[in-house]
Every structure is written in C-alpha cells, then in structure tokens.
Write a structure and sequence with these properties.
- The chain has 204 residues and is an alpha/beta fold.
- It has eight helices and nine strands.
- The structure holds adenosine-5'-triphosphate (ATP) and ligand LQESDW3C.
- This is Guanylate kinase.
- GO terms for molecular function: ATP binding; GMP kinase activity.
Length: 204
C-alpha cells in the first residue's frame, strides 16, 4: 500500500519571507511537494493571479465555504479571511504526495489538531526591525495595515515554541536549504529510507 504524503506547514510573521522562500523552493526542479493554494477575502495585490497566488473570494462566498465544511482550517487575519481547501489537501496526501501549506499561526494550530503528525516549521526574521523593514520595503500595504501586521507579528513569534522547527530567514537560499533538509530528515525518520532511494526503488 502506498504511504500517505507528509503535510508540511510553514508559518511565520507577516513579511518574514514565507512566500519568497516557498516560491524559491517550488522553483527548484527536484522539489516534490504540492503547494496548496489558499482562499482569501483579501483584495489581490498588483500582479497576483486568481488560482495561482490565491483563490480570491467575497466574504459571502468564504462564509458559505465555512458552512459547507470545505476548509481544513481558516482564520481571520488583520481584517480578512484566509483558509485552506480541505479536499485538495486530503486527496493529494492520499495519493502519496507531500503537501505544503503557507499559513498563519491560528490556522496552523487548527491543522495541528487534525494532523498531529504533520511537520510544522516556523520562519523567523533576523530581528523585528528587519521584519518591519521587509514589510515596508515590499510596499504592498498602507501604513496602518503594516502597523497591525507588526502587532500580530509579535504575538505570533511568541507561538514559535508550538512548532517542530524554527528556521531563520536571514538569506533566502539558506532558509530553503534548511527547510529542504528538515523535510528529508523527517522522511528518513518516518520511513528510515531517504526519499531519493524510495523513488529509485519505485522506478525499478
Ligand atoms: N532573506 C531575505 N532577506 C531580505 N529580504 C527578504 C528575505 N526574504 C524575503 N525578503 C523580502 O521581504 C519581503 C516580504 O517577503 P514575503 O512577501 O515573502 O513575506 P511573507 O512572509 O510571505 O509575508 P506575508 O505573510 O505578509 O504574505 C519581500 O519584499 C521579500 O522580497
Ligand atoms: N490560516 C491561514 N493563513 C493563511 C492562508 N493563506 C495565507 N495565510 C497567511 O495569511 C497571512 C497574510 O497573507 P497575505 O498574503 O495577505 O500577506 C500570512 O501570514 C499568510 O501566510 C490560509 O489558507 N490559512
């Protein structure tokens, strides 16, 4: 019987670089995880594409998805809803593939309750001033939203001890290497075989 995939959850304060790190990991040709695209009621930022960056929904649509139990987890974050479509995650894990979620901490806590054997990684900035610098430099939020996100960020960072691993995002490439190494180690711990050997044996 095929092993189920691993659920990998990446959290961290707004602006720490989760999206940047995730995009870098998914641009690597040997990445074997599947990214779960979230739903949100936030307005698209310039360049964001529906169905690629998020599934953009109205509040009414989102609340209907909640009622229909279509979300694995959801949270209200600085005035908008964010949530993970449950069917995609369950079907992909069942098919044996790893699924990667990039979500904030309230959602990660809900996922931990449903998937206690998931792999939970918290990304931290080198400092709070660098965090603020990154979110300001990104230039996507007005000042009052940045201030709200910074207030939430401090509360989120206090939650990092609930995670299996804390990874610093000092440099994007280093953070990606650390995350990839953690995932490989986790597979080895569970199966006692490195994933590349499993692939090699399946191919024969
Ligand atoms: N290691 C790094 N060093 C310097 N800048 C970085 C680093 N990682 C990301 N950044 C920059 O920080 C900004 C925020 O990154 P990003 O949007 O990926 O953060 P995020 O955690 O996904 O934010 P949010 O939770 O608000 O969506 C971007 O402008 C990005 O280019
Ligand atoms: N609980 C969830 N949080 C999510 C999900 N998708 C994204 N997020 C997190 O929300 C904040 C804000 O995101 P932004 O794109 O508006 O900057 C950030 O921490 C994301 O990681 C989700 O499905 N569930």
């Amino acid at each position: 019987m095929k092993e189920k995939g691993l659920l990998i959850v990446l959290s961290g304060p707004s602006g720490v670089g989760k999206g940047t790190v995730r995009k870098e990991i998914f641009s690597q040709p040997d990445t074997a995880f599947e990214y779960s695209i979230s739903m949100t009621t936030r307005q698209p930022r310039e360049g964001e594409v529906d169905g690629v960056d998020y599934f953009f929904k109205s509040r009414k649509e989102f609340e209907s998805l909640i009622q229909q139990d279509k979300l694995l987890e959801y949270a209200e974050f600085v005035g908008n809803y964010y949530g993970t479509p449950v069917d995609y995650v369950k079907e992909t894990l069942e098919s044996g593939k790893d699924v990667f979620l990039e979500i904030e901490v309230q959602g990660a806590r809900q996922v931990r309750e449903k998937f206690p054997d998931g792999l939970f990684i918290f990304l931290v900035p080198p400092s709070l001033s660098e965090l603020k610098n990154r979110i300001v430099t990104r230039g996507t939020e007005p000042e009052h939203v940045i201030n709200n996100r910074m207030t939430v960020a401090k509360e989120e960072i206090e939650m990092m001890n609930l995670y299996d691993y804390v990874v610093e995002n000092d440099q994007v490439e280093l953070a990606c290497d650390r995350i990839n190494s953690i995932v490989v180690a986790e597979h080895c711990r569970r199966t006692r075989v490195e994933p590349r050997y499993i692939k090699m044996l399946e191919a024969e």
